[in-house]
Amino acid sequence: xxxxxxxxxxxxxxxxxxxxxxxxxxxxxxxxxxxxxxxxxxxxxxxxxxxxxxxxxxxxxxxxxxxxxxxxxxxxxxxxxxxxxxxxxxxxxxxxxxxxxxxxxxxxxxxxxxxxxxxxxxxxxxxxxxxxxxxxxxxxxxxxxxxxxxxxxxxxxxxxxxxxxxxxxxxxxxxxxxxxxxxxxxxxxxxxxxxxxx
Length: 198
Fold this sequence. Notes:
This is Molybdopterin-binding protein. Helix content is 7%, strand content 34%. The chain is globular, with a radius of gyration of 16 Å. It is mainly beta. Strands 1, 4, 7, 8, 11, 12 and 13 form a seven-stranded mixed β-sheet that branches. The protein has a five-stranded mixed β-sheet with strand order 6-5-14-9-10. A two-stranded antiparallel sheet has the order 2-3.
């Protein structure tokens, strides 16, 4: 199944349709808050934890055996570059939360390196987000978040946590790493929500 991001509106007059303040990148810049961790797939685990502490986990073999989707989406970095029509393979967050009983409205994504970012649960559902493990037909490289990263293409890319380890359900919102440092709590590129107050 192929999906095109809802934010993509085609091209006008031969020029790409980019969010305000963005420029078109032809490469895939590598930006991280710290050093790149190397996570072996035989030790990798993905966990969904509810607000009551109930946890559901998958090994790499279990995770990659789940139904996957091939998606084509535009991605936008807060540092002002955008990359259009990027191809990914991943498991929809809808699939991962299928049997999870939660009353949460928010999620904290946590990475293997300790990085965190908060996202409203509704922004991860209804075909809007994936845990991706392939990019452009290849295994996802560590520099781009491999073996697996969260992919939330309608928000700035810092919300698509690299080296994803856990989605923790929360009844109340709390800031993640960049949000606590002054980045916008939500991060909509079409509204230029880069920093608090935008």
